Amino acid sequence: MEDLYWIFNYGFLGSRLFDLPNFMICVVLVLLGSRKLHVPAIIQLVLVLHCLLPFFLNGVLFDYGYMPDQFKYWNWFNQIRSGQLPLTDAITGGNTQQAAVFFALMPFPAAVAPLSLGFFNSFLYVFTFFWLYSKKVFTRFSMWFFLLYPSMALYSALSLRETLIMVFMIVAVQFAREGRWLSMGLVLVPLYLVKFQNFYILAPILALYLVFGIRRTGLSIGKGAATAVIGFCSLLASAPVALPLVNKFRVAMFVEDGGHPDDIQLISSSLDFVVQGMTSSFYFLIKPLPWEITNALQLIQSIENIIVFGLLIIITRIAWKNAPKKLIFWLLLMLFSMSVYGLVVVNFGTAVRYRYPFVVIFVLFVCADCQIHRALPNFVFGNKGLSKPKPKLAHSQHQDI
Asked: Last residue of a domain, which of 137, 167, 201?
């Protein structure tokens, strides 16, 4: 395989010219999908602007080396496409190789630069939007959240596996909502390949969702409380076995993010393990806190966290009034996922990467199941592709803010 770094000889603008075909493929998808589904013009514009994002991240918003994992996916992709790495070897390799397999199978001619796979991810982002739109999962609020959530826009325009992870998770959850066992299981297989941690979080919960008919009846407050108590007791009982593993992963992830092993605070006892297990969910959802900010990027992340957390409170409040039994399941999913990652993830940037797919899933499916169409002043666009509000009766408890 030839030297991949020849692209940097063409300078800032020259190197980006080679990615115009990738950009145009994304635009064609936007135009064709919008025409088929009759998507309003304002949404088409937002989608096209999203397709432009890869041009303005690496080498503009931050240096190429700021997220060095992008080079790994780029290199593996080109080795697979060139035949230097056989497809069978890549599938049985590590997570980055397996993610590169999915990129290599996508309908794009080449990835000439480290930013190129950002267009592949933008394609997946747009395709997922149209898939959810055709399934009528979106409500007014959840659609605009999907389109404007900054962390989602950022990571779905970079050359990382995060968009693959998010797409597999969203599709698996929607298939579970439709009661499609086999389809859900098939989608969970690639999720296991690219992010086994998320598989072990999502798969058991979706299995319970189907086995106990939660998709039809929801989860009562009593059963939800019992589940939380069982979870607490399980956490306490598993502490002697789980504590060494949790500390091992805490150190490994801290070192992977550039930290020194001696600088990480380990969980010291079973009591500390239980306390952190109970409190890490909330902290993981909102960190970095304002007093923990050390640079401009963390300031932006903190502001985003405050806004998103406020929106989550608003939709949770509305959902509790509209359909509390449907809400409880999604709250438990969020609590469980945030607790697991809160125990092992220390780095703020890593927290953002691991958190946002669960936030997107929570907003999408709470709004769909609990009929939340407005949480902020309304935007103007068509209703096709949106889940329909239930008619309000006299003295109905269904409310919008």
From this structure: 137
Q: Are 239 and 274 in contact (CB under 8 A)?
A: yes
> Is the separation of the CB atoms in 96 and 123 below 8 Å?
no
**Nearest-angstrom CA–CA distance, 133 and 143:** 9
In a domain, 41, yes or no: yes
Residue 383, number of CB atoms within 10 A of its CB: 14
- How many domains are there within the chain? 2
Domain end, chosen from 137, 156, 190, is at 137
Q: Is residue 36 part of a domain?
A: yes
Do the beta carbons of residue 263 and residue 254 sit within 8 Å? yes
Query: What are the pLDDT digits (tens) for 166-204?
Result: 999 999 999 999 999 999 999 999 999 999 889 988 988
Whether residue 233 is found in the same domain as residue 337: yes
Place of tokens 């989602």: 152
Half-sphere exposure of 116 (CA within 13 A, CB side): 29
Q: Is 4:78 a contact under the CB 8 Å cutoff?
A: yes
Phi-psi region of 371 (alpha: psi -120 to 50; beta: other; left: phi over 0): left
Q: Within this chain, do residues 230 and 324 fall inside the same structural domain, yes or no?
A: yes
Give the pLDDT confidence of 262-306 residue by residue, as tens digits.
667 777 766 677 677 677 788 888 888 888 888 777 888 889 999
CA dist 173 and 187 (Å) reads: 10
Q: Domain containing 348: what range? A: 218-369
131 shares its domain with 255 = no
59: tokens are 């080498």
Residue 393 within any structural domain of the chain: no
For the stretch 66-125, pLDDT in tens is: 888 999 999 999 999 998 999 889 998 888 999 999 999 999 999 999 999 999 999 999
In a domain, 391, yes or no: no
Domain co-membership, 1 together with 118: yes
pTM for the structure as a whole: 0.88
CA 127 to chain centre: 15
Radius of gyration of the chain (CA): 22
Q: How far is CA 29 from CA 33, 135, 288, in A?
A: 6, 18, 36
Judge contact between 325 and 219, C-beta under 8 A.
yes
